[in-house]
Amino acid sequence: MPPTPRRALPALLALLAAAPFAAAADPKAPLKPGVRVAVVGDSITEQRLYSKYIADYLYACVPDLHAHVVQFGWSGETAAGFAARVDNDLLPFKPDVVTLCYGMNDGGYRAYAPDIGQRYERPLAEIVKKLKAAGATVVVGSPGVVDQHFFNRNRPGQTTPAVYNDNLGHLRDIAKTVAETNGMPFANVHDAMAAAMKQGQAKLGDRYPVGGADGVHPAPNGQLVMAYAFLKAMDLDGDLGTITIDPKGQSTAENGHTIISARDGRVEVESRRYPFCFTGGETDANGTRSILPFVPFNRELNRLTLVVKNAPADKVKVTWGAESKVFTRDELGKGVNLAAVFVKHPLAEAFARIDAKVADQQSFQTVMIKNEITNHRSLRGAAKEDPALADALAAVRERLWATEAKKDAAVKAAVTPVKHAITVEAAE
Predict the structure, then answer these.
(1) Domain 23-232 belongs to what topology?
(2) Vertex 125: Cα angle to 196 and 297 (nearest 5)
């Protein structure tokens, strides 16, 4: 292969820099109306953060999917641990799409060695093949990262962040191979988090954790990156609608939004889908807003576009709810992403209500799976010899899932149309 010309290097480097965010190579997980999504993983999943963000997005941003999302996180678990409970815990849910995120514990918190890879690959491949046979699409996720500042900090002689992230990088490659071998989508959680961590700590300082303040369990900021990687592996285009205001003509709205009235640059809109909304300040790791400069979530997944035709001036003030922003005529002609530039907007409160209901739903799911359904495995033998016990266990399972279904219905019922107004006028 001939050497790369020097003049081509900048473009090549730019391409490589963007590569970590190509988190979802084809094929993608098909999301069809009524899709049942299972979010599976270890304690990072059981934190119920990235799993909640995935559910928030599917319920609120694309409500026409009528998705049903259940998280199956289990603290301390490895791929082998889940392989032992997939039949009992997951398959009765009859999932259409399953996201897997193992590897953090599988790596053993030491330097990589071939035996680590073998112990990870075998059960991971077994899980994927079993779910594939059951008709599910499996989004095989890589492990994330440990924090390059906080992991094993002040613990001399322990595995360093660089050494363990190298280990997790090997497991990422194995996960990708398992996905490709089975024709399944791959979510590159590891590289997306590594890139966000490098950029975030360069901008906000080493003490801004992306891999978690304990070095392992990400706060909401890092968990949003995880959700991004998995959502990108699904068939989502990120177009959440367009609102077009024309003070001299007809204003329109599409893709989940309807114009109720329009006059003198002010439109009243009814929205039946919401943009994803963020929490916290610009440097707060315990919120999701601070990580946005370092992950293309808004650009790729969260576009609620405002277009202004026949703008009243070269500089235009746009007021949406309690906030106003100034844009140029050219910017508004091309379209601006309301979800990216407005923080406190009229749809944020409605989104927060969905988020709270999803949090309650997933909290129940953890108790249901870990405290009850998983433990039924230990009674299989006795149930075979005692039909009454078998019926009782089946009845308990049925009632638990019925309660969970009510919580799922409550989330869906909370996604109601919201009326709000947007005004465009010449900026002073």
Answers:
(1) Rossmann fold (3.40.50)
(2) 25
